[in-house]
Structure formats: C-alpha cells, structure tokens
Amino acid sequence: MKKEEEKKKSSLTEKTVSRRDFTRIAATFGFTSTFLAYHGLAQAGTPPTAMMLAQAAKETEQERAKVKAKVKLRYGTAGHDIESTWVAKVGTYDFVRDLEERTDGAIQVQLMEANSICGEMTCAEKCIQGIIDLYLTSTNNASTTCPYLNILDFGALWPSRASLYSFAMDYRSEDLLREPMRRLYGIEMLFGDYGLRGFFMSKVKYGQGTPALDTLDKLKATGAKIRTTGTLFGLKSMQLMGVNPVAISYEEVVDAVRQGAIDGAEAWEIPFNMIHFTEFTGQYLYLKYCSGNWVTGMNVKSLDRIPADLRDKFMESCYLAQVATLGKEEASIYVKAGSGELADPPPGSEHWKCNIRNIQWSKEEMDKLEKVISPKHNPQPWAEWREKLNKMYGRGDVYEKLYEIAHEVPASAYAIDIIPKRWWKPNPPWWNKPDTAPWRRGSGYFAMNLERRKQ
Q1: What confidence tens digit (pLDDT) does each residue in 13-32 have?
Q2: Cα–Cα distance measured from residue 22 to residue 19, given in angstroms and rounded to the nearest whole number
Q3: Considering only CA atoms, which of 167, 146, 104 is closest in space to residue 409?
Q4: Hey, is 267 helix, strand or coil?
Q5: Is 403 part of a structural domain of the chain?
Q6: pLDDT in tens, 328-386
Q7: Of the candidates 28, 27, 22, which has an alpha carbon nearest to the alpha carbon of residue 52?
Q8: What is the mean pLDDT of residues 8-12?
Q9: Does the residue 23 lie in any domain?
Q10: Domain span at residue 104?
Q11: What is the pTM of this model?
C-alpha cells in the first residue's frame, strides 16, 4: 500500500506543469489567459497537469474573447509571477481577475510578468514613457526614477504596518502622495502591500548558539556588512545606526551571503521568503526602520483614456485589490513567512523551517533607534533632502504632515483591524475617532502586546 501511494505521488509530481509546458501553452492561448487559468487551478488547491492547464487556458481565452475589449492595458510586474504570489500577496491577480469580470471583458489586461518587460529599477520609468500602462515594483526602487517616493522612507516614520495601510486608504494621501505623483511624473498610485524593513543576519555568523543582537550597541559592535537596495533613505538610516550598507541587487543577495561578501541583508517581511534567503538567515531583527512596499501604479494618460463608466469599475477593482492585499499579506507574514512581530515562528512557516530566531527589540531599544535615525529627533542629516521634497510637494513640510498622520496609529495596532475605505473619497466622520476606528486605539485586551500574561 505504501509503495502504491509513493508511486501515485511520484506520478502526480511528474505530470505537473514544467516551465517549458507553461511557455508552450501560453504561446498558444496567451500569457494572461494561461496565468489566470493557472491561478484558478492553484486557488482550488489542484496541482495542474499540462493537459489540465491547456484546457483551462483554452476555456479562459474563449471566455475573454467573447467580448470585444474597449480598453486593453499592458501591466508589467517586476520579479513577480504566479509562483511568487504564493507568499507575496501583491494583489495583481485579484485585480486582473476582478476587473475583467466586473467589466464583462470591456477592459482586458495583458500581464507581462517576472521581469519580462521591466525590472525593479525600470518598471516605473517604462510606465511614465507609456511603454506599459500599469506597473508593479517596490516604491523604494521606483524612487530612483521618482524621487518624491522617498517621502515614504524617512527613518522610523511608521510605527506599524497598520499606520502605513491606514495612510494608503486615507483621503489625506491624495494631498501628500497621489497628487504630487500625478503632477511630477504622470503616475497614479493605486494599490499595494505595505511593510517595514528589518535585518536578516547570516546563519554562519549569527546562527544558533551566538548572542542575540537585541540592542543597537550589539548590532553596531558587529561591524556587519548588510546588503541594501535602491532606497536612498533606507541607506541613510542604516548609516545613522552604525552598520555598513553594501549595495547588492535582489537577485544576487543569496550568492553574496553564501560567498561571505555580506553578513546579512535588509528587506521587509516577505521578499526573502520568495528567494529562500531565509535558508541562510540565523537571526531576523525586526527594526521597522523604513518602509518596504510593492505598489501598482498607472500612467495617468492611460487612466484618462478609460471611459467614465468603466473608470468607476476600474477604481472599484483597485479598491477590492487593496482590501484583499491587506488581509492576505498580513496572513502571509504570520502564517507563511513567520516573521513580523512574532518571537516564535509558527510551525510550518518559513522562519520555523529554517530555524530562524526572530529578535524583537524592547521598547527602550526601539526608542533609542528612533532617536538616532528619525528626522524628528536627529534633523540635520535629513535637512537637505527634506528641503528638496518640500519644494516638490509645494504646500509646506511634507515630513511633518506625514509624521502626524503616521503617529495617529499606535505601534500596538494590527493592520487587520483597519476598516477599509476608498482613498479617493473624503474621510467620513468615523475615520479618525478611536471609538469608531478601532485600529487607532492602541489599548485594551486585543492590542498588540509581546509580553506573556501572568498566570
């Protein structure tokens, strides 16, 4: 009986879709139809065979072809494909599937995944140029093309992921983020996942049996070389806290730690699970020193070309994608990654499988870190860039306004407690009140607390 079961499992594994099968089917029925078909089968919990995928892709393509599209959009996603979205809930497929269904095929999207048309450093630029209509990349890397996006990355600006998501749905984001992005770059900021960066320290130097890096002084004493990305302000925060940042691309980070070129790397909660950098991580320091976000943006001219009735439906699909992304990404952080504020990764999560120690700093240490890297407490290193960004914004001190909004939401808030709202509509009266907007309370039995209750 055991042999028969093993043979059955082996047979299923052999019949699952290979990359070559996928490419061949996509060439026949179109990449978007194939992606949507694969996603549908995967969501149903079915590991598709090539024959199953081909049939589903054919049916999907036939359904999409029944209606002549009034609007066709090209959507480039940097580094993301079906496989990556098992852990990174970036909203792309929720959005495309709902948009085509909601408009009965009047709007159709051509997905161009996994760096096939643009990468992390080029997607925003190609969207501005009109080569693609929509793009997905991190705001941090896109800031090399759109420097105004640096406003999201001031040191220790966001107390929690809840404060980031709350801002993304707040009407005040129109004044501080969305209008300047349209005016300066012709980009409409739509939906995304929002996270906070920490350090993934090498298993070789900081694995089991080594001291926990649970204070700023201990971290500085290591003199560790830590990989950084395209975020200028993230780099500045790392320099201020006394570590040695090394610029290495996302694709090369695994080889860099394997070869000893770096002692760790920085990212937010999810990205390193996608490339299994977690296998080389000994300690995860959740410092929340800078944001990390994958956001879908759109060329404003492409949005304006959509007829008014369809544009309303388009924005509804964006709203649904934002709601889905918040819930799914938060669940993925805890259940699949095992990161975030968790001291003990849950069984089955990536951090649990890789025996990673999640190091949570005390409130006193987090306050010490904030005093070192925050423009609020250490303004001089940030002064030049604050002046530049204020000129781009044109309506006062953008950091001060952002800081006030960000700190309306306490560090103890959970993002899953946010009651979603459409960001393009004015805030209703209940939005800013702790009694009717529960994520703003930060107190009570169900507020986030990392201490065990006394028995």
Answers
A1: 445 787 678 778 877 777 67
A2: 5
A3: 167
A4: strand
A5: no
A6: 999 999 999 999 999 999 999 999 999 999 999 999 999 999 999 999 999 999 999 99
A7: 22
A8: 39
A9: yes
A10: 15-194+292-332
A11: 0.89
Asked if the structure places residue 32 within a domain, the reply is yes
- Three-class DSSP category at 49: strand
Structure tokens at 426: 């004015």
CA dist 317 → 106, 313, 374 (Å): 14, 6, 36
DSSP lists the bridge partners of residue 294 as 138, 193
Report percent pLDDT > 70 for the chain.
95
Compute how many other C-beta atoms are within 10 angstroms of the C-beta atom of residue 45: 6
From residue 226, alpha-carbon distances to 241, 263, 377 in Å are: 12, 6, 24
| pLDDT on residue 376 | 97
Rounded Cα distance, 161 and 4, in Å: 48
Residue 111 neighbours by CB under 8 Å, 6+ apart: 31, 32, 35, 75, 77, 92, 96
Residues 437 and 430 sit within 8 Å (Cβ to Cβ): yes
Establish how many alpha carbons lie within 13 A of residue 367's alpha carbon, considering only the half-sphere containing its beta carbon: 3
Structure tokens at 219: 């971290």
Total length of the chain: 455
Sheet of 291-299: strands edge to edge?
107-112, 71-77, 134-138, 291-299, 187-196
Q: What mean pLDDT, rounded, does the chain reach? A: 91
Domain presence at residue 25: yes
Alpha-carbon Rg for the chain, nearest whole angstrom, is: 22
Dist CA 8 CA 399 (whole Å): 59
Give me the number of domains the chain comprises: 1
Is the separation of the CB atoms in 37 and 56 below 8 Å?
A: yes
pLDDT confidence bin for 455, thresholds 50/70/90: confident
β-strand partners of 295: 137, 192
Question: What CATH number is associated with residue 90?
Answer: 3.40.190.170
